[in-house]
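Fold this: KCNMB2 ball/chain domain-containing protein
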Amino acid sequence: MRQEERLTSLRRNVRSFQYSFQTVSLSRRPAGASNRMFLLTGSKGPQGAGNERRTVYQKIREYDLLEKKKTVTALKPGEDRAILLGLIMILSSFMMFFLLGITMVRSYSDSVWTEESSCTVLNASITAEMNCTYSCGSDCWRGSKYPCLQVFVSLNASGKVVRLSHNEETQEASSECFYVPKCRKDHAAMHTIIANISERLKPQQQVPCYYDPDERQDNVILTRLYSQGALFHSLLWPSCMFAGGTLIILMVKLTQHLSILCEQIGKAKR
């Protein structure tokens, strides 16, 4: 009986000790610690996964932006230079068209000697001395003379006898003389030039000539100042420059459009 009472008292003491230990541990723990630990533990899984996904997305986005920036910085200077070159070529062609329009094209369109034929030289002789002036310095002009060569031909297209001039400028300078040399002090040199021309234009010689089909001008000219061939070749180069500049700009724009399409297709495949 005494042993059983001792065991019972020991059990009671152990239980009381355990109860007191639990009470002390609970009293020392701050309020809501278990709830917070549960909340932190429970929320750690989904929030951590979202952060990881966001981090991966940001890395991919930053990589795409970096690659795109590298492509843009690599292609933009070349594209800008190509477009600038195309614009310069187009502007240069416009300037050339303007200059040719007020010089060659205007002279060609104003010329009335449009029909080509052949003429027979009837007479070529020096008839008189013509006065001219030449420059001897700043605000200095002196007079000189050159021989006037008159050439008469028979126009084979109509049979008329008309006076022959060298070109349109000679006709405007002097309607009587075949050729007007550059005025200079040396009269003998100008006389030699005219004499050589007179020897080449021998009587009964067939020479090409241009006449006015509307008969507004009675004389004919030997050569046109600007022929169709010269006009074509002079307008060919600015036309090629304009076409080249336009083609360069179109190619750059096409390249940019294709690069955008390729980028959109690559994003769609991802």
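Helices lie at 2-28, 33-110, 168-173, 187-200, 228-269. Confidence is low (pLDDT under 50) at residues 31-45, 70-74.
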